[in-house]
Amino acid sequence: MEKLPKAGLVAIIAVVLLIIVILKSSVVIGAGQAGVLFKTLGNGVDLENTYGEGFHIIAPWNDMIIYPTRQQSVSDKMQVLSVNGLEVKVDATVWFQPEYDKLPFLHQEKGTQYESEILAPAISAAARSVVGRYTPEQLYSSKRDVIQQEILEEVQKELKTQYVIVNRVLVKDVTLPIKIKEAIERKLKQEQESLEYEFRLTKATKEAERQKIDAEGKAVANRILSASLTDKILTEKGIEATLMLSQSPNSKVIVIGGSESGGLPIILGNQ
């Protein structure tokens, strides 16, 4: 009777140990994640394999470190200097993800805090390098897309051998000192007003030229018409008009030899 309780106790202990072993040996890697295996009794990090999504069985004394592999983002507000030494605040967001096949190397060399260890410093260095090439006016107006692309290229170059893929950089805001910003806005307003004045002046000049050309054309046409109207042509046109009037059915009186009409008949009509 005494052996049964001992046997039951052993069985319970065995079951508990088995459950602990199973729990320690089973690993579930979720969607958008990958695992790196650390072999406690072996050579440390398994550099040959990256463990994908799903259920995995490992030795209970080993450890599976799980990393998110989906695209992630990190935002940072940095204070950098422009080309002429003025302080500029840049608010940027970077989209990145770890290189899947190189995840064991990333874990071994950089660790789970790789974002703060290598990514953030690379972004900061790239922003300082790129913004330092431009004046505040360029940063304020039309250079944001160019800056984004250049920061992206700088970060990609910096992290090329660091097992991190940088997909995109977005510069959300570039903040200049208030006085510099106001000065730039005044300058831009003056330039806009100057361009508007030049446009109006050009338009008025073109309209004056058009009117001049139109007037010259009319003057030339009048000179040509005046030169072509000789006395014979006028007499001929008068005869034609007289004949047309004489053929009309209305009653009329025709006076021949009117001196004031250049010798043409004068027709006096009554209805």
Automatic annotation (TrEMBL):
Keywords: Hydrolase, Protease. Residues 24-188 form the Band domain. Gene3D superfamilies: Band 7 domain. One of its GO terms (molecular function) is peptidase activity. InterPro entries: Band_7, Band_7/SPFH_dom_sf, Prohibitin. GO terms for biological process: proteolysis. Pfam families: Band_7. Its main location: membrane. One of its GO terms (cellular component) is membrane. It is found in: Membrane. It is a single-pass membrane protein. PANTHER family: PROHIBITIN, PROHIBITIN 1. This is Peptidase. It comes from Nonlabens ulvanivorans (Persicivirga ulvanivorans).
